[in-house]
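>> received
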Amino acid sequence: MSAVAARFADGRLHLQHGPIDLIVEAFGAADEVERAYAQAIERFGDILLTLVGELPVLRRPVGEAYPLLRGPVARRMAEAVWPHRAVFIERHADFFMLQTNPQRPGLTSPLKVGDQLV
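>> returned
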């Protein structure tokens, strides 16, 4: 299975590869948007394979040693959770969730880092 890129009628970009499914909308001058979409398509092609190669490290609990990762997405994932390493972070439904209620350990809410849900 390989990465697929398509455009919706409204101009948004759809990128899909395995479990990764993105709908992207860029704003700006038309030529800049087209360049941004072309760069996104080019970069997207190997993201899944790169992440799969780093799964053993990505699945480990974050400890005291900063995880050594190679791919830019995996490095950003580590960067996002590093400040929260004192709190248990689990992989749940393909999202990293922050456990927020110790009295009810099954309840989780998305981990928000800046404007991003991680």
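>> The CA atoms of residues 98 and 109 lie 6 Å apart.
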